[in-house]
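re the bet — no i am not wrong, look at it urself. input seq straight from the record:
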Amino acid sequence: MDAPVLVEVTRGGIVESAHRGAVAVLDAAGRPLLALGDIDRPVFPRSAVKALQALPLIESGAAERFGLTDAGIALACASHSGEPEHAETAAAMLAAAGRDSQCLECGAHWPMGDAAARALAASGRQPSALHNNCSGKHAGFICLALHEGHDPRGYIGPDHPAMRRVTAALGEMTGFDLARTARGIDGCSIPTYAVPLRNLAHAFARFGTGAGLAPDRARAAARIRAAVAASPFHVAGSGRFDTLAMTALGARAFVKTGAEGVYCAALPEAGLGIALKIEDGASRAAEIVMAALIARFLPLAAQEAAAIAALADKPLTNWNGVEFGRLRPAPALAG
């Protein structure tokens, strides 16, 4: 099946480049409202499923035991920019569990946010694992392991008790047999499993509504959504799509980027889940598609519509600040 063009890049009044991909929009009963491209081909969702991986942190009682704040729970779902507030929140999560950054097994990298990286370099300091965009997720894994009485060392391995519980939650939410699909290693070293867009969209429809979930899991999903709505900055960071979209929409939408052009979302009011994959892995295109889908499937007030429209159709400028084209949704996304 040929992947349809989802995003166009214009210059001089013509389409200069195009991004192809696949989109699945499902309701909580598993019915597709939109299917573009091959939505049954397994893809690695990577960071797009961090909220599903955070469910055991809430269900187990670990978040409550260690007094995790909205910011901490949001950071457990984050691919953050490594700004000071992000690193400080990750450190606070670990301190609440009696640990520090030496316990993190995600590795260190310079902050994803340019301003944060420049500021850190200007200070003469080197990045630590706290600056890793996944440090909040990993701090959550450590809290889960300690709460359940396990040594957190080696928590990134597929056979660690904490990771087995996280993997089980992902499999249950997606309804996909993770033991029979491709398993890779994510950028932060935890296992990542290939799952079809159809299953991912269904999982996020259920995550957003609680439909078909056990009471404890439905409450955990609601707690995560509330925390992210209260602290969208901690899910991404300054000027980032996830933070901008959820600041504009609050609890009306949960959106989460993944690597290689994957994006997932829950629209609780509409009862829908969204999953998409850009074939060439371009994040810029995935953001355009997600914004276009939100505008299509979620009724928006004027201020909300303006905020999402700005994310769905972006001007392209050169080094002199002159606009030369646009990044825009392709006709395939029109309602």
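see?? The domain at 5-333 is CATH 3.40.710 (Beta-lactamase). told u. also The mean pLDDT is 97. so pay up
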